[in-house]
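Dear colleague,

Following up on yesterday's call, I've attached the two folding results inline so they're easy to grep. Please treat them as preliminary; we haven't cross-checked anything against experimental data yet. The first protein's sequence and structure tokens come first.
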Amino acid sequence: MERMNTASDYLESQRGRLSEALKKAYLAGQHIVYIVTTDYGVVRDVLRYHPIILTREKAVTIKQPPVVRDGVVVTEGVAAEPQTMFYGVEALQNFNPAEPSICLVTITERAEQNLAVCAGLKKFVEHLGGVAPENKKVNYQRSMVVIVTPVAPDVPAEVAPFCRVLRVGHPSESEIRKLIIEQVLKLDHKHIAEAPGGDTYLRQMVLYMKGLTRQKIQQTLGRIKSELDRVFILPGNQEEFNELVRIIIEEKTQLLENSKILKLQRVSKSMKKVNGMSRLTAWLEMRKRVIANPEEVWRTVRVPQPKGILLSGIPGTGKSLAAKTTAHVFGDLPLLQLDMGNVMDKYQGESEHKIEEALQLAEAMSPCILWIDEIEKGIAGAAGGSGSSESMQRIFGKLLTWMQEKEERGICCFVFATANSIDNIPPELFRSGRFDEKFFTFFPSAKECVDIFLGLVNGQQHAFVAEQRQRGEEHPVHLFDVGILQRDFFAQILDSEVVLPPDSDVVLPVPSSKSPGKVPRDKKFMTGSDIEAIVERAKLIMYYRGQTEQRRGHAVYSTALFRDAICTAISEIKTYGQTNARNVANCYVQLSEHNFSPVSDEIVVPFDYPDITRLEDDGLPFDLWLEGDNGAVDYYRHLQTRYDQQLFCYVGMAVNQYVKPDNH
């Protein structure tokens, strides 16, 4: 019975699956096999200990490496002596086997594959077809060329009939589990099966080791042993286990060093509450426990791990900050940024290779957050039509398939997709099950604008003082005067004429007025990026005016002078609301149609009022003059600040002025 279990385990393992696939290719006459994997050790071990070609009438047997099962070393059976092997591109170009053999080629660059490797393959195929002498022809027909490549190959048309492409996935959970047991026994001389808390340790370690190759897992565990003096550290020992996790994440991060597509975004450990995203933060907090231990939660209460969210909205409203907030809330998980603009390539097939490589790296970093930045750049038009392309369709298909299957394969990767516009995104992406939720960011309310101003100046104040204390200053100089750090300072500026000029066309709507209204361009409606630019411009203005202080007991920026500089900066800067009213209107209508949820509880312009169906009869989609319990007039009057009232009217007028029937 034990022998049967051993055989079954082998066939389900990476080595077993690859060995069987190679044998099938050999028997089918497919003499060229591409193996897509980064785990070169698996291929080496299969060809060394599990021969595909038997060259002797009576094979000489050798012992296979010992295997650890449930913490106990067991000895496997024996295997035939390895077949004759040749290695490298040079061997392939001069391949002239005296007996049936295998030529193993490992490539890392696609350029190398397209030149030297392709030339050697064409020569090999010519000999298969009869160029070689008759006695040599038999050797060619019983030989194989195995090419190991980390990315999907571009198979030359001349050799395609003789080729098979195999993919070697990452070790399964059971394989990772056995490998960890083996290494703990080897490094710590401890049987996990007999150790208290061993099951908890294994579940956590399997989660963090997912996506790594066998060789990388062994290297990582070896580093843990070297730095922490032991590998078996229970999660209950929080400080040491956190160090263990840190080492694993550092080792995984090394996988991204040579990637031109994925970037690891650093998230500050001192990151505090993010202003203007209370609803999103609460949503993330509810799912934090599931992300931290998805397998245990599924096993005990059958709650699946979160898939991800789609966040859209006008530029400059904090979508990038929201991605970093997500990583912070989820326990500082690795945040991988995939810029879809970098995926697109002018060479045919390269874009698909890039997205495939990016998704493989994301799997290797599991558990992690994959931030797909500006997703519309890579898949806009993929649903068909004049603007579509085959490349976009293939990219979109690969992405959807991966998103659908990653949980089934045990990959804990939370997808955080952002978009500035969803107008050209295929509707399949909005289907239920792709994302757990769709959020939007829009203009912040007056209260949120004040919060953002205060967050910026307080953050800079704290960092400025901390740097001085690190240099040994006992009485550090403050960056901002205490008056600047008060809510009233910025609230008064938002309500001033520099932000809301009195000669604006935006006034309290009355039922008798049914014109669409003229969108005002002199109002300074701000995004988070506008606010940051205003603060930096104000500091620069004071610096060039010579109004900054560097003396003890005085803040660098005084209250009265900074207020004047802020007002000057606001008058000089063209905010997003002044320059992009048409985009504001289109974005608002798109988000309304697809039922997006706000990231904040402070909703200045809710989605209750625009009625897109009114476009068909030349009506105004945003009825600013609707009275009653849910009417726009009553909502307008209940807004607490003049800034919010004017913003509400501005968006309504923009929708009425710019959203036309031919846009939908």
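Below is the second protein, in the same order (sequence, then structure):
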Amino acid sequence: MWQSVATRIMTGTAAIAAPAGAADKVLGGTLLDRGASARFLTQTTFGPTRSEIDRVALIGRDLWLLEQLGKTPTLHLPRYQALLAQSASAADARYAAWWEISLTAPDQLRQRVAFALSEIFVVSDADTTLNDRPMQVTAYYDLLVRNAFGNYRSLIEQVALSQAMGLYLSHLGNDKPDPVSGRRPDENFAREVMQLFSIGLWQLNRDGSPILDAKGEQIPTYDQEVIESYARIYTGWTWAHRTTWGRGSSVADETDAPMKAFPDHHDSGSKVLIDGSLVPAGQTPEQDLKAALDSLFNHANVPPFVARQLIIKLITSNPSPAFIDRIARVFENNGLGVRGDLGAVVTAIFLDPEARLGFLSDQTVYGKLKEPLLRLSQLLRAFEASSRSGIYGVGRTQAAYAQAPLGANSVFNFFSPQFQQPGPIKNAGYYSPEFQLQTETQGVLIVDNLGKRIALISATAGDNDPVLDLSSLVAEAADSSAMLDDLNVLMLGGSMSTSLRDIAARAIALTPDAGDEASRLKRAQIAVTVIAVSPEYAVQR
């Protein structure tokens, strides 16, 4: 599978004009410079580390991806349970487990893709249905981790039967209609699984552009009748351990098992699917669910819809139609006739010539604002932050960063993929999803929190506070130029501008090197802070 994808991407490298000498750095198999390696890791992980930069530079991108695809998934639930046993509160344990794994797990590619999936297949403990269920939220995240390189068809079924999703989108305990009482099936999941998880609102060409009717207008993918039909399909499912039907919960319901079907509470009448085919009457809940999810999985919209969503989460906010088309084709066929192979899809995304060289061919549009949470994770990983207790007590970051893992304010995620920042970006017709979080107030809070984390030292930190290890910078802090060379690669992928370098050098010079560790630590902290709060660090190129 993987080799066939790599071959298809290599044959497409002519789609983007590359500068002379750059072609040998598009794929692995050659020695890459450390800046290019760091830039690649900014896309594929929660942040580059010196050791991982050296590894990618040595073995190349394609072999690094192959290694990552083969790594055993690091799951959150066991760590969550271990932290609970250490008397951490349930909420603190969930966040600590997430931060520990995101910052230290060896399967970084899987964890990064799972985070992207968590912003597409959204559940959130900001909602009252889940704010006191950290176990189920943690189990849901592990579902995404396990399926990050699996098949989309399997993923969407596991999502549909997840207790966390069933609570969040209210199809857990969704009962069949009752004409006497006037009860109707809940339509929430039926709507969102189409709008947000699979086909979107409008019919698409393979390159993500809208299909237009004879009047030049966009064509909806579904209507209210389709929603009602699918809502009837998603009836009859509830808590996993139950022997009798019920929607209310008890302590016994705190499991990570998929929901269980109760045929007597399932609407067994015939239904019409989105492709016009008929689900016959008398089928089991499992048979109806299979028919419904198969119909969505095979819809022509799914490849471009999923491709665009993943590209904008991982690479750039405004992918070209050609980029979307190439990835959609891999979704349709991984080279071995398999549809929906997410491992092939993400491999194709990261090796695509637009992902690798787009910042050179289109410096005006290419790239994206980093999500606030990723600005923090990149800083903590770059300097291998750790705490005295071994617990990663970063906590709930919603106030300072407008984000917390699985903490979005709505099913539409922290920000919309269609958001356009008013002004030049919107006027030019471009999208800027993450800018929806970048208010003036939030910008100040992010900068302030990053600065405080950089200034934190072991002597003043709490037992669970992760502290940056700046020892390597302290060792070279007498030479500000060498220190900035190091930080240029580690934090900016070798893209530091002359103006930022000049600002950083002048700021460092305000604290002369006195030959002692204290002055050199201060110089190192100043250098890291200037870069971490800069617009250049806030942007992924």
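For the second protein, one point worth flagging: Residues 113 and 419 are 22 Å apart (CA to CA).

Best wishes,
A.L.
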